[in-house]
Design brief:
The complex is a heterodimer of chains A (328) and B (498). With 328 residues, chain A is mainly alpha-helical. Helices cover 74% and strands 3% of the residues of chain A. The longest helix of chain A is centred in the C-terminal third of the chain and has 27 residues, at 218-244. The radius of gyration of chain B is 25 Å and the shape is globular. Chain B is an alpha/beta fold and 498 residues long. The chains are: A mainly alpha (328), B alpha/beta (498).
């Protein structure tokens, strides 16, 4: 690829901005570059990142999903209650179960979007509220803390790729869960880029009617994107509580904004048809890094929300300006 | 003589009791360029959809290579080599040229995995077949309309097409691009592929086709070799009316100052040194290639380029027009080229569209006089002969010609003195075109409007303007009295500029 073409790619631009931001943050706060901080930064990418992969797919198809945090919590909580009830001691089956619950809820989104032709934002706002309400109203509101959390989940999520003890005696490690994130990223990348169903997602996001005429299976594609987003959310819900040793059904509320911000920041178009896994991963990294730096700099959490809001608006403005310029 | 590629016998199709097609028979020979002419709503689209398997006919039969086909489906039609190039091309703007070309192939082969090397190879072959130069890695939305059309044609050819149906292919093309398209159409024909060319541009039909079929109200009204037709006979067949009109003659009346006069009008970078005076009742045409500055000239009059230099006078008084509100207040009305996105609120009712600029005048003590508004709107619907049972129907249900009348009608409600029309009959069928032209003439004569008519369509200008200004690269190349020039002379001058 020629240098000019490489420079025009949104991924390159995000990467350069990211580098610049890292250098800037490092100058203001040298603690940023400490290995411990970098490791925790990467760890913080995992949950937002996996969910962003699902939202990216939905957004490329021309839709949007704001229901996934609720789905994640529902899948996680139902799975945990079942594990505690029967005293299940494995790891794989619970993750499969959470994934399938998420997938089923995603199918619900797809049903409303495709069969009843409702607007995705309204559908997912509605299903998200419904699922969260149902979870809190009928299943439970109590937090499952570390004493009751299944041991095997904690042990699973505790695994490190590499770890050592610093001079001052604190223990730092790079979590192995990063591999799960990278694995999912690779799978979604291959799906989107190198399979026909992935190209159907792009085609549908570009022009739904044309996609139908060329012969793409529109219902299948719609179900694919929402089910993938739901399944990833379900999986991530369980992974999230395994990593923090605490299962609170109220958790992750408001997370949809962070994830959508990251995806848009990563160059995906809010109008569909455009976006990449690499860009999204960079967007997630950028967002997590900004939040992380605000924490190191002791900025209050309310201000972090302001910053996320600004990022959403700025990134959307830039991408829609880009899309307008392309169309002109 | 071999059996025709496709033969339609006594095809009938009704929707909710209305005959869209009625006892229509048509034969398309192999390697034939056939023009299908008809006004909007004449049944052209229904016919295309029946051939391409989207609709099933209620009566009659369809033969393919002499064999009757029962229940044609879209997939069955594609399998028999029928390819339709829709007006919107059905391309994916967000994907590259290469992928757009290869997609249908990949789908037909029921592939699950995409090999980008194969995609490029397929695309390269497709472009080579067409003998054109296209950047395979460019996103389709970055191509001009003509480029996108080439992609659509290349894609259609790849699927072993035997018949390519082109729906209004020349609508958004410049003359030069039309010539390229025609060269390609003849190449396609040379390979034994038939082309069904759907159009309402007479000149182009006569130029490209071997046979012409004209339908009106779902019935075949004329069919035969192109040599048997001329513009007048096609128009007569399409509309059932004799629409040849006398050229517009304007006779200066008493010594009034020009309704509109511009002197030294300039917007840096767009045009400069424009001088033009238009008297009441004059219809002045402005022609020029795209990019000649003609649209910007119109927009300046309408207050969209507030930092213009030079002078604009209306009825002898110098005015400064720095906003659309100024322009409207001075009685300048502008009917944009793209009325669908710039001029109309499609989902709103006809009444609301007509009244959109008049609400200020209808307000009494801050409240709208709704009864008066309804009376005004009804009067305008009658005056403009908009075909609708009631003004409470959404504009989107109207045909292109009627929509155009709504836009013009809206400005008349404001008692415009100067009417600027940009492409007044683009996308409007012949019958409505004549109606709109008649209306414009009436307005000029009866209300003393000064009309500026911007158009690509030289015959249209020659037929309806008393003067024509030729614009090129931001200057007037000349202003001609229509009576002393001819269509051919103007067309030659335009060509020389290109």
């Amino acid at each position: 690829m020629k240098a000019a073409a490489l420079l025009r790619r949104s991924e390159t631009v995000i990467f350069l901005v990211l580098l610049l931001a890292m250098v800037g943050i490092g100058l203001v706060n040298p603690a940023f570059w400490q290995l411990g901080n970098i490791f925790s930064l990467l760890r913080a990418n995992i949950i937002t990142g996996i969910m962003a992969l699902g939202v990216l797919t939905v957004m490329i198809s021309g839709g949007i999903d704001v229901s996934f945090p609720a789905f994640a919590m529902a899948a996680m909580y139902i799975t945990l209650l079942w594990m505690l009830n029967v005293g299940y001691t494995g790891v794989a089956l619970p993750f499969l179960m959470a994934t399938l619950i998420g997938l089923a809820l995603g199918a619900l989104n797809a049903f409303f979007v495709h069969s009843i032709r409702m607007i995705p934002l309204i559908v997912t706002l509605g299903t998200g509220a419904m699922v969260r309400g149902f979870l809190l109203g009928f299943i439970g509101t109590s937090t499952i803390n570390i004493d009751k959390m299944p041991r095997q989940l904690i042990d699973f999520a505790k695994q490190d790729l590499t770890s050592f003890t610093t001079e001052d005696g604190s223990h730092i490690g790079l979590t192995a869960m990063l591999l799960i994130y990278l694995g999912f990223a690779l799978v979604v990348h291959v799906l989107l880029r190198h399979t026909m169903i992935g190209r159907a997602v792009f085609a549908m996001g570009g022009d739904k009617e044309a996609a139908r005429r060329v012969g793409f299976n529109i219902p299948l594609t719609t179900f694919f994107v929402y089910c993938l987003a739901g399944a990833l959310a379900g999986f991530t819900g369980l992974l999230h509580v395994s990593m923090i040793w605490l299962a609170n059904p109220h958790d992750l509320a408001g997370m949809e904004l962070d994830v959508i911000a990251a995806v848009v920041l990563g160059g995906a178009s809010i109008f569909g048809g455009r976006g990449s896994v690499l860009g999204t991963m960079l967007g997630v990294f950028m967002l997590v890094m900004v939040n992380n730096s605000l924490i190191i700099m002791h900025v209050s959490t309310t201000w972090q929300r302001v910053v996320v809001g600004v990022i959403v608006i700025a990134a959307t403005a830039i991408t829609s300006w880009r899309d307008r310029k392309r169309a002109a | 003589m071999p059996a025709p590629l496709i033969e339609l016998r006594h095809i009938g199709k009704s929707f909710a009791g209305v005959h869209a097609l009625d006892d229509l028979s048509l034969a398309l020979g192999a390697g034939e360029i056939h023009c299908l002419a008809g006004e909007n709503g004449s049944g052209k689209s229904t016919l295309i959809k029946i051939i391409s398997g989207v609709y099933q006919p209620d009566h009659g039969e369809m033969l393919f290579d002499g064999e009757p086909v029962k229940a044609m489906t879209p997939i069955g039609a594609i399998a028999r080599g029928v390819q339709v190039i829709f007006q919107d091309f059905s391309l994916f703007g967000n994907l590259t040229v290469a992928e757009n070309l290869a997609l249908s192939n990949e789908l037909r082969d029921k592939r699950h995995v995409v090999s980008w090397r194969r995609v490029r190879r397929i695309a390269r072959e497709a472009v080579a077949q067409l003998g054109v130069d296209l950047d395979l890695d460019a996103d389709v939305e970055r191509l001009p309309t003509s480029g996108r059309q080439l992609v659509a044609i290349a894609r259609a050819l790849m699927s072993d097409a035997r018949l390519i149906i082109m729906d209004e292919p020349t609508t958004a093309l410049t003359r030069k691009e039309v010539e390229t398209l025609f060269r390609i159409v003849r190449d396609i024909q040379a390979r034994g592929i038939s082309v069904l060319f759907v159009s309402h541009k007479m000149r182009e039909m006569l130029e490209i086709s071997e046979r012409i079929t004209v339908i009106r109200n779902g019935k075949l009204v004329a069919s035969g070799p192109t040599a048997e037709f001329d513009e007048i006979s096609i128009t007569r067949a399409m509309t059932g009316l004799d629409l040849t009109e006398a050229p517009y003659v304007w006779t200066p009346r008493e010594a009034l100052p020009p309704r509109l006069e511009v002197t030294g009008l300039a917007v840096p970078g767009l045009f400069s040194g424009l001088d033009l005076a238009v008297a009441p009742g004059e219809i002045v045409g402005i022609s020029g290639l795209l990019g000649s500055g003609r649209t910007d000239f119109a927009l300046t009059l309408f207050g969209m380029h507030p930092h213009y230099q030079g002078e604009i006078r209306i009825d002898g008084t110098v005015v400064r027009i720095t906003s659309v509100q100024d322009a409207i207040a001075h009685g300048i009305a502008y009917v944009p080229e793209d009325r669908l996105t710039e001029g109309l609120f499609l989902s709103q009712t006809i009444n609301r569209n007509l009244l959109a600029s008049s609400y200020d005048g209808l307000a009494r003590h801050g409240l709208l006089d709704l009864a008066q508004a309804r009376r005004d709107a009804a009067g305008m619907i009658a005056a403009m002969q908009i075909a609708t049972p009631t003004g409470e129907r959404p504009v989107i249900e109207l045909s292109g010609g009627n929509q155009q009348r709504v836009v013009i009608g809206r400005w008349l409600m404001k008692e415009a003195r100067i009417l600027v029309l940009n492409g007044p009959t683009v996308g409007v069928d012949v019958g409505s075109k004549a109606g709109i032209h008649r209306k414009i003439r009436d307005l000029a004569v009866e209300h003393g409007l000064a009309v500026l008519m911007i158009s690509d369509d030289v015959p249209e200008l020659v037929a309806h303007c008393n003067r024509i200004a030729l614009m090129h690269r931001g200057h007037f190349e000349g202003v001609f009295e229509t009576a002393q020039t001819s269509e051919a002379a103007l067309a030659d001058r335009l060509k020389a500029l290109a």
